[in-house]
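Chain A, query sequence.
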Amino acid sequence: MEQRLASSWHMTVNEKKFIETALLSEVRVDGRRPFDYRKLTIKFGGDDGSSEVQLGQTHVMAFVTAQLVQPYRDRQNEGTLSIFTEFSPMADPSFEPGRPGELAVELGRIIDRGLRESRAVDMESLCVLSGKLVWAIRIDIHILDNGGNLVDASNIAALAALLTFRRPECSLGGEDGQQVVVHPPEEREPIPLIVHHLPIAVTFGFFSNENIMVIDPTHHEESVMTGRMTATLNANGDVCAIQKGGGEGVFQRVIMHCLQLARVKAGDITTKIKNAVESYNTERALSKIKRHTSSVALDVGGADPRLGEKQNQADGEKDHHHSYQMELKDEGSFMECDTTSSVQVKSNINDRVSNNFLGGPSSWDPYSEGVKPDVLKASLASRGNDASCF
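Chain A, predicted structure.
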């Protein structure tokens, strides 16, 4: 059977009747109304492409990885997308280890159909070298605790992981330009995936009475319900996929009513996913800025000795140039002072010479002590008289 009956073995008849009777009164065991979702919590891990979703008691983790592979022959310009599920016995005693069971296979197909057929992820952007290398995206979904409605919780976890995943950037090099070079995150910033829209899976549970229908069935409600249908829509109301999980049939009018409800729920869940991803990207950017700031501070604190030598050399040149200017300035002022003093000395000497000239020719003889003019005239006159006697 497609419906989950693993936990019915420990539920008594009275418990089952109690759940059905409460639903007839539009009351659920956990206090919700028939078309209400449980509390949704979205968290992200330390690495890009990891998410953790808790929907009520249901706990799911998803991881996204990528590797370079050869493309398919019929789609040589497109990458690939694959989904793998792991049902651990720790999540539910009915889950057996080893090969995936029927529920695990169906869960992976529902999520894969919603993403692939709606072309939510741009596969052509995953092409690195046409016909040779493309990116293969792999989504691993791990069920940690089964509290009911694994499809919706796993779908939300897969979308959140896809939105936060970043693949390495590639470039072509070599002599022929056909060599692919994968750049590590330290060299180039990784590239996020191109996601056009978010296909949201909304699961409905039907019971024996066709008038009873609920959204997001719990672990206990799944053991009582007789039919299940999952509608995958985006926020615009576009139907991406519909999965009817066997059991009792559903009328067309009921399906149309379910699609109307699913459109509203898809819009609300899309907003929650985008808000959570935006908060994660903001924290990631802030942490990256802090890392760059610390590295810059480290470089400044422990600066390169060559930079220090250049700085010291520049400072030395500035000081030398300043001192040279000061020397020129001082030398110029000294020359001015020397010129002024020499002019004053010369003027003083000229004054003394002129004064000596006023004293007569005796001032020319450095050994003479100087004679008076009257004595010189008398001596010359006596010599003239003596000459006339001869």
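The first helix runs from residue 13 to 24. The chain has two domains: 6-167+190-300, 306-358.
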